[in-house]
Design brief:
The complex is a heterodimer. Helix content of chain A is 38%, strand content 28%. By secondary structure, chain A is α+β, with helices and mostly antiparallel strands. Classes of the chains: A alpha+beta, B alpha+beta.
Chain lengths: 346, 335
């Protein structure tokens, strides 16, 4: 009862609970939060457990730089919950932050976007986690659907629209028609795999160990999915494995392209498989309309060109691809109120 | 679309259009083969076309590089953005085409926005259902329906209460005192104007004597306007005699008086059931015509049957033990 009372003082929110970043869209306000999905925890044996030190950007800055009694963890892995308790705490923190300091603890209706490939157990864990964080009621929606709606695809038409959402932990490709998913596949390849590939490449070829944050910076600055006309370079610092001391060295975009080949081919394979499985009528629509890219991975340079060359279809990157899922979730929440059952919210 | 669009797309000679077509920057509508009317406002289409021609590219080469359909490339160059299904495609292809030609995408998109002629953003409203929508049993709706139901039931009850005095077709027995003021006169059935009394005693007994001796005298409780014509002069003894004056157009009525407990069933000529009840001593019934009536008496000795005041004796043949079943004509003949 108190939850429903508090609900009058809360706004409906849509949460893109991503492996790398968590975004929150508040109805009528737009994207109000975009923070890394990282929680810093301090061991306090004297108080009988662990306490949360920082959440979000602050916690991410601690990644790989923490003393022994503090651990910076990413509670989400491959698009699903790896640590239930920390995910709940993180969500609670974000929801409170979005609603500000109010007399009443917020109790909003929450829509959480989940990977298409997530199991029922994983979905239930996400639902319970959001409920534990104070949500009045929790709805789940498949990420590809939210991404398509957020990108502005005409998903309600009886025509095929294809969307590829490259997130931090998973890449989801889907063909959508009449507000429903006709075919979808989820590959556990995403931005994190790109970072891992860069770390491995540097260690293998330079004998130098770099951290996740450094790998991510390399990917964002000189990462590329398709050979370009100009070669860009970047100076990086890491620990030399044989000498054990920090060293500086230079990487170029061609090397990063080589490093990213394996995860990129995984994504291309998923897209090709989706095209094979798509019914012919919808396949014809997709051939005309093309593939729309969303998610943070769509920001990788020339990834659209790679997919275009590999599939022979036009590929376009959505506007503001990073926030498509959260925005789409918000729109679905609004539409579901006007047209109950429009998107089959669970 | 494909055959026609392809033919249109291929009709423009790759790279060769430059000489025959207007100079870069000219209105795209000046092209002789262009079907649609040229847009009035200048969008990014002219710039795209000029850049393509400056590079010596034909539309087919653009199609091969970007895998965009020829008709859509033409639409971009002619600022016909309604050819795209949604703004995301119009903007995406415009950006892609511009980047391919080395034009600044931001400026092209700004030009597109300034045109205000893009496709309408999708509403995402789902397809309407062919089936009837399930009833919405929301609490407010339930409450409303409840109120309506209460009003209907209450209204019906009130209507029944207010209408009940004229409703029943069959008259009931009531006390003499009750009847007299209301039905002071004899009905038309009592054609002779004499009070008709209901057999209080055995058949053949004097009617007059019985009338005074036995209290129950029946009369229609609701002196139906059609049935009973007030006859003021009819009998000063109206009070005591209240005649049954059958309220029927037929003129004759069947009366049954009871001296003991008896089941009575009476059907008229049309098969309509007139009586179907258990009566006790002292009660009587007057049943309207027209006859003949089909009568069943559960205890024949406890009933006194009369037609228009003339007692009728139930013959032995009609009896079956204590019961009797017979048909009686308006003239008193039993069958």
């Amino acid at each position: 009862m108190f939850k429903s009372l508090r609900g009058y003082f809360s706004n409906d929110v849509s949460i893109d609970l991503g492996t790398a970043n968590t975004l929150i869209y508040v109805r009528g306000k737009g994207i109000v939060l975009n923070e890394p999905s990282v929680v810093a925890v301090r061991d306090e044996p004297s108080r009988g457990g662990k306490t949360i030190v920082a959440v979000g950007a602050e916690a991410k800055s601690m990644l790989g730089r923490t003393p022994g009694h503090i651990t910076a963890v990413r509670p989400m892995k491959d698009g699903v919950i790896a640590d239930f308790t920390y995910t709940e705490k993180m969500l609670q923190y974000f929801i409170n932050k979005v609603h500000g300091n109010r007399f009443l603890r917020p109790s909003p209706r929450v829509l959480v976007c989940v990977p298409y490939g997530s199991t029922q157990v994983e979905r239930r864990a996400i639902k319970e986690s959001a409920e534990g964080a104070g949500a009045r009621s929790v709805f789940l929606i498949d990420e590809p659907m939210a991404a398509a709606v957020g990108a502005g695809l005409p998903v309600h038409e009886p025509r095929g629209s294809m969307v590829l959402d490259i997130g931090g932990g998973t890449s989801e490709v889907a063909v959508i028609s009449l507000n429903g998913i006709v075919y979808a596949a989820s590959a556990r390849i995403g931005g994190d795999r790109f970072d891992d590939a860069i770390v491995n490449y540097v260690r293998r070829n330079y004998g130098i160990l770099i951290g996740e944050s450094t790998a991510e910076r390399i990917k964002m600055e000189i990462g590329s999915a398709y050979p370009g006309q100009q070669v860009r370079e970047m100076s990086v610092k890491g620990r030399n494995l044989s000498e054990g001391v920090p060293r500086s060295f230079t990487l170029n975009s061609n090397e990063i392209l080589e490093a990213l080949q394996e995860p990129l081919q995984g994504i291309v394979g998923a897209v090709k498989q989706a095209l094979e499985q798509t019914p012919p009528e919808l396949g014809a629509d997709v051939a005309e309309r093309g593939i729309v890219l969303t998610g943070g991975g769509a920001l990788l340079k020339d990834i659209d060109k790679l997919l275009m060359e590999e599939t022979g279809l036009p590929v376009i990157v959505a506007e503001d691809p990073l926030t498509c899922v959260a925005r789409g979730g918000g729109r679905i929440l609004e539409l579901s109120e006007e047209h109950p059952g429009a998107f089959g919210l669970q | 679309m494909s055959a026609e669009a392809d033919s249109r797309g291929l009709a423009i000679p790759p790279g060769g259009g430059g000489s025959s077509e207007p100079a870069p920057g000219a209105e795209p509508g000046a092209e002789p083969g262009a079907e649609p009317a040229p847009p009035t406002a200048t969008g990014p289409g002219a710039r795209l076309r000029a850049a393509r021609e400056a590079r010596g590219l034909g539309i087919q080469q653009v199609v091969d590089s970007l895998h965009i359909e020829p008709r859509l490339v033409e639409a971009l160059e002619q600022d016909r953005y309604d050819a795209f299904d949604a703004p995301v495609y119009a903007r995406g292809f415009l950006k892609k085409y511009g980047t391919f030609l080395g034009l600044p995408a931001d400026e092209l998109l700004a030009g597109y926005e300034a045109l205000h002629r893009g496709p309408v953003p999708p509403s995402l409203v789902p397809v309407a259902s062919a089936e009837r929508k399930p009833t919405d049993w929301s609490p407010w709706r339930r409450f409303g329906l409840g109120v309506v139901a209460v009003v209907l039931v209450g209204g019906s009850y009130w209507w029944w209460l207010t209408r009940s005095p004229v409703a029943p077709p069959v008259t009931e027995v009531s006390s003499l005192a009750d009847e007299t003021p209301a039905t002071g006169g004899a009905g038309p059935a009592a054609g002779d104007g004499e009070p008709v009394e209901i057999a209080g005693g055995p058949p053949g007994a004097s009617p007059g004597g019985d009338a005074t001796a036995t209290a129950p005298v029946e009369t229609p409780r609701e002196a139906g306007p059609a049935g009973i014509a007030p006859a003021p002069e009819a009998s000063a003894t109206g009070a005591a005699a209240a005649q049954p004056a059958p309220a029927v157009a037929g003129g004759t009525a069947l009366q049954v008086a009871f001296v003991g407990e008896c089941w009575l069933e009476v059907y008229d000529a049309g098969g309509r059931r007139l009586a179907y009840d258990l009566h006790r001593a002292g009660e009587s019934r007057t049943l309207p015509g027209p006859g003949p009536w089909r009568v069943f008496l559960g205890a024949v000795d406890s009933a006194r049957v009369s037609i228009a005041g003339r007692p009728v004796v139930v013959p032995q043949a009609a009896r079956n033990g204590a019961t009797a079943s017979f048909t009686i004509d308006p003239d008193g003949t039993l069958r």
